[in-house]
Design brief:
single chain; 5-stranded parallel sheet; 4-stranded antiparallel sheet; 13 helices
Length: 408
């Protein structure tokens, strides 16, 4: 699948420190230790209604990780999927009387446009669920050979008890798992399952739904096996970071890890699991099911500066849950109106301390609010008349671009 165009990112004259992240599995901030290129997987969209601010917050968050690693001297192999066949997509296509493939491509292109506008670095491998079906089939066959599968009315299921480490990613108790599984696409109440938490690997052919040939009969893959197969193919075992919104901790990331680790028991799926918080609107989590969405494309079409959208997101720590408001956006618009003339000056306040502060903040669990505050302090000092360092505005402008993705 075609990805989006990469923005030009300037190089810094100094290297950033090693990068630490909060790891969901340990509940602690841990240092990432890439061996060679840093390997990152961020779960992508189901393209039936893209891109709202919840999406944007997640992808901007892990764009900061991508940039922090690069500024620390690492190459980065970044992989993202697109779930371009799944129940929500098929249901939406049926409801609006549009071919499911047409809907998927339209919304995927909209997502690409939004990511370009927000200056998110593109993945090296951008892989659709449909094109990854051969990978999913091969991985399912490994699980079948390991004795970790069984059928229910023609559908092939994964036995979570086959994974001795099941539960270590999310660290949730069973009652919470059962509740979340039912809320997030699972089927805990289906008759015939060995364990209510077992998840579908291969869904047998349904009338009027797309299906593909496989050794398990015609059908299509489940959601979780898709990411397992794509990540293993393009990143290998024990890659550095598996990332996404915190609504993916369970069941998606737990199940994806289980599939990979049962098929390849000698290796962990990922070293660190990192999760972004949820963005709310009108008092509730922003979600397609509730319809309380603020779309990046709608703001862009209203001639809102994409850098103001990005700055609004950067002012909230990526792990926090928070609520989007128009006031936050308009404050970011006003801020950039002040920043841009200052960054165009020939001289300003000393840049060195700001460079250190921004790089250090982002290496410490992607602390963008602290980085933005450091930049704001430089702006305030320069605006107040401290223009003692020739060339410092250009240094700060480069810094904001390379680290925070703000092209000003």
């Amino acid at each position: 699948m075609r990805t989006w165009s990469a923005p030009a990112v300037p190089s810094l004259s100094v290297a950033g420190p090693s990068v630490s992240l909060f790891d969901t599995t340990t509940g602690e901030v841990v240092e990432t230790r890439p061996d060679g290129a840093a390997r990152l997987y961020v779960c992508g969209i189901t393209p039936y209604d893209a891109t709202h601010m919840g999406h944007a917050a997640t992808y901007v968050a892990f764009d900061l990780l991508n940039r922090a690693w690069r500024n620390a001297g690492h190459d980065v192999v970044y992989v993202q999927n697109v779930t371009d066949v799944d129940d929500p997509l098929l249901e939406r296509a049926t409801k609006v009387h549009v071919d499911w493939q047409e809907l998927a491509e339209r919304e995927t292109q909209l997502f690409r446009d939004d990511m370009e506008a927000l200056r998110v670095l593109p993945p090296e491998h951008y892989v659709g669920a449909v094109e990854s079906i051969p990978l999913a089939i091969a991985l399912i066959a490994k699980l079948q050979a390991a004795g970790a599968t069984y059928t229910v009315d023609g559908d092939l299921y994964f036995s979570v008890t086959a994974d001795a480490t099941f539960g270590e990613v999310s660290r949730l108790d069973r009652d919470t798992m059962l509740a979340l599984f039912g809320e997030r696409g699972g089927d805990p109440d289906r008759d015939g399952k060995k364990d209510p938490l077992d998840c579908v690997l291969w869904l047998s052919e349904r009338p009027d739904e797309p299906s593909w040939d496989s050794p398990f009969g015609r059908g299509r893959p489940g959601w979780h096996i898709e990411c397992s197969a794509i990540a293993l193919e393009h990143l290998g075992h024990a890659f550095d970071v598996q990332a996404g919104g915190n609504d993916l901790v369970f069941p998606h990331h737990e199940m994806s890890a289980g599939h990979a680790q049962v098929a390849h028991p000698a290796a962990r799926f990922a070293q660190v699991y990192s999760h972004a918080g949820m963005v709310g609107y009108d008092g509730e989590k922003m979600s397609k099911s509730k319809g309380n969405l603020v779309f990046v494309s709608a703001l862009r079409n209203s001639e809102v500066d994409p850098m103001a959208i990005r700055l609004t997101l950067l002012r909230k720590h990526y792990r926090s849950d928070w609520e989007w408001t128009d006031d936050l956006l308009w404050d970011a618009v006003d801020t950039l109106d002040v920043w841009r003339p200052l960054l165009a000056l020939e001289a300003g306040a000393p840049a060195g301390p700001v460079v250190d502060a921004v790089l250090t903040a982002l290496a410490n669990d992607l602390d963008a609010p602290t980085a933005v505050a450091a930049a704001q302090a430089w702006m305030d000092a320069t605006d107040s008349g401290d223009r003692t360092e020739p060339g410092s505005p250009a240094i700060i402008r480069t810094l904001l671009d390379a680290t925070l993705g703000l092209d000003l």
